[in-house]
Amino acid sequence: MAGRVVIAAVCLGIAIPNGALADHSHHHEAATTEAPGSAWSASLGLLAASFSTQSFVGDYQGLTPGVHWAHTRFSAASGIGAYRLRKNGALYHGVGDLFVQGQAVLVGHHARSAGIVFAMSAPTGSQRDGLGMGHVMVMPALWGSWSAGEVTLAASAGYGHAIGASQDGEHPHGTGPIVDPMNMRELTWSATGEVSVARALRLGARLGGAIALEDSGVHRTVGVARAVWTVGRVDTSAELQLGIAGDPFIARGVIETALRF
Description:
The protein is mostly beta strands. The chain has strands spanning 38-52, 57-71, 74-79, 82-87, 90-95, 98-109, 112-122, 136-148, 151-163, 185-198, 201-212, 220-231, 234-245, 249-260. The chain is built from no helices and 14 strands. Strand 6 (98-109) and strand 7 (112-122) form a beta hairpin. The protein is globular.
């Protein structure tokens, strides 16, 4: 059904993205082709995380609303988060970076499909407080999806590039607890598996991350376990995300509900 793909509130690697929208850990899902008309959905996510970097330790909580539109082979999504951040005992409140994404199915449909996605973030969050990146980030990627029976497998590969960042060569790798240690230039990747265990329940896992393209960059890997249950037009998901390597969070929990109109 059109509108089935919704914003996930981390965003790693295939990156949406399920997770905080501001952290740019996005995973891409195949746009649906099952309905000829347009459909809208709205989502609201809650997240909580603990983190430890070279400079800061603490935790944060967030509220991440989003909207999504789908029409045959095309879809678009946008979202922004509001956060309460505690680092080294100090408290900060504010919004994160605005995230927008457009996606298209280029070949195939239903069980086997592949396409392209273009994601971009705008620096609406405070870089000084650790709520945003401080510059625009563009993130094009290719994705593919294959289903057989109750099992679906997907993968993506992309590229991230900073626009309008400072020219002094200093990028705040790992210093922003809410944003991943995004590099000025990096290759992103992800692999996802999902199985339908009941009519209304799906279980899945995802592994994703990035490879830095500069000497001072930070490679990262994140693992995600996910459950999604559906009641009518409402999809509710729960995720446990673990920072395996190079990521500023130790563990993050995300619960999101999306309503399809």
